[in-house]
Design a protein that fits this description.
Number of domains: 2
Number of helices: 2
Order of helices and strands: HHEEEEEEEEEE
Strand content: 35-45%
Structural class: alpha+beta
Organism: Christiangramia lutea
Transmembrane segments: 12-35
CATH topology of the largest domain: Lipocalin
Distance between the termini: 87 Å
Pfam families: DUF4251 (PF14059)
CATH class of the largest domain: Mainly Beta
Keywords: Membrane, Transmembrane, Transmembrane helix
InterPro entries: DUF4251
CATH architecture of the largest domain: Beta Barrel
Length: 183
Amino acid sequence: MMLKFSNMHNFLFYKFIPYRFYSAIYLFILFSIVACGGNKNISDEGDFSELKELVESGDFEIQNDWAFPNNSNNINLIGNPNHLIFKNDSVDIFLPYFGVRHAGGNYADTEGGIVYSGPLNDLEKDVNETKGIILIKFRGMRNGEIMNFDVTLYPNKKARTRVVSTQRTPISYEGKYRSSEDL
């Protein structure tokens, strides 16, 4: 017996509709589980009140483990010297730089990294209790280069630093902070 196309189409459609229906339900459940499971915040661990006290003391250090240059791969900084040392209203910064310098610099500058030691100019502290983070923004200037720093601190001892310069492509860093007393 030979079925016509329209009859065969109807036969296949109605025979396999339960499989399509159940497949759609399984996919919906799977996506719901995956979507709900990925809601962990980086600041879930740790004590936010301790972080606030540390920032208010103004006496802490950040050591970075990773650099994230613009348009490039991540770079492991373990074993490479780098730091951001906060002392009250001043900061000492030495960060290796992996990127393009568009202007400035001089031949006597042998450091090549992001170097700044001085006051925290245009300091802003944003305490966001709902997200569980503290954002510290400040500006530094060295040899005609203006650098804007955005430092985000999390209660689980993680820190993210973003540097935007007038002479270089932006770069970000990720590491850990600790109190200067812990050194």
